[in-house]
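Try this one yourself first.
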């Protein structure tokens, strides 16, 4: 595990790290940052929110055979985990589901739910309703993605002695996420609860395709085709540095984080002026999602003392050996007058 000192050095309100010239991704700086945090939604609840500030790990316990909330989906025949995972009727719910307006489909009909960043809650709903799940995401501040899936759950709370493998029920579940998701993260395939096997089928993932929210005090967002790669401006480097924020339960894809870094950079520069008393003001920033080998890693913010047009967004990613670092959801914001 990387030290807490490194984390504090990255997220504290201090001078941003110098950017390479041109503004390539600082892969060494990303490597030095803490790893992104990936969590999974719990299996043994019908609704959940991390705002309860519970630990996002399951505590092993034995059940009491209490009846569980009734499921709303069909039970596979025979009533086994293998039959559930291969049930064509259940999989058809996923393959026939509409993609909601404002979203793009990240994956379809996987056999696992998400282990991803910035988990924002779980809802059990009455059908495989991607439009309803999208509505829940739209209502949740900071929601960037959702996972709609079908889960085989026990009809009573399993107990090793009295009800180790009860009949199943079928639930339709919707989870919300504060960072974009990819198919490789749909790897949470279930668990054993005594003699009962909880499994997943028909797992679909969707990312917001619409621009992020506006940020108070800034004009934007302006969509970019890549990351800004600004040239010298009459011999002057206008890049003030970068800030990188790994995804975690407290950090999702949120350009307002970059706005705070931009304002903090100006404040830092004002406290450390040049010899003539002048200092650089952060007037513009580029916020984007950085992924490594297709897995979302964090929010990358590059800060500038000059505004740059979208045609300068020419950095689409970099390779380092077998690793590929890519840019997505790249937007710019300009400080309001």
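Now uncover the answer:
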């Amino acid at each position: 595990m990387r030290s807490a000192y490194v984390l504090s050095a990255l997220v504290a309100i201090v001078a941003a790290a110098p950017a390479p010239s041109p503004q390539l991704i600082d892969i060494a700086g990303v490597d030095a940052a803490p790893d992104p945090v990936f969590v999974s939604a719990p299996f043994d609840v019908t609704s959940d929110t991390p705002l309860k500030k519970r630990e996002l790990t399951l505590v092993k316990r034995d059940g009491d055979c209490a009846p569980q909330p009734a499921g709303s989906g069909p039970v596979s025949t025979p009533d086994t985990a293998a039959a559930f995972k291969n049930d064509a009727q259940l999989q058809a719910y996923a393959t026939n589901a509409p993609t909601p307006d404002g979203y793009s489909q990240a994956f379809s009909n996987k056999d696992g739910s998400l282990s991803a960043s910035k988990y924002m809650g779980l809802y059990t709903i009455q059908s495989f309703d991607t439009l309803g799940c999208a509505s829940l995401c739209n209502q949740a501040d900071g929601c960037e993605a959702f996972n709609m899936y079908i889960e085989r759950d026990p009809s009573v709370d399993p107990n090793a002695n009295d009800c180790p493998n009860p009949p199943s029920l079928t639930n339709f579940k919707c989870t919300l996420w504060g960072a974009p998701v990819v198919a490789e993260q749909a790897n949470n395939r279930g668990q054993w609860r005594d003699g009962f096997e909880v499994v997943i089928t028909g797992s679909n993932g969707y990312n917001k395709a619409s621009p992020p929210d506006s940020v108070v005090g800034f004009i934007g967002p302006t969509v970019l085709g890549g990351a800004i790669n600004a040239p010298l401006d009459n011999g002057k480097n206008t890049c003030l540095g970068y800030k990188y924020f790994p995804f975690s339960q407290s950090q999702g894809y949120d350009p307002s984080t970059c706005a705070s870094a931009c304002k903090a950079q100006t404040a830092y520069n004002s406290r450390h002026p040049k010899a003539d008393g002048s200092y650089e003001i952060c007037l513009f920033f580029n916020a984007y999602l950085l992924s490594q080998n297709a897995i979302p890693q964090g929010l990358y913010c590059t800060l500038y003392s000059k505004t740059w047009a979208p045609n300068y967004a020419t950095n689409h990613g970099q390779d380092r050996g077998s690793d590929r670092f890519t840019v997505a959801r790249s937007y710019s914001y300009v400080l309001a007058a």
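Discussion: The radius of gyration is 23 Å. Residues 226 and 313 are 5 Å apart (CA to CA).
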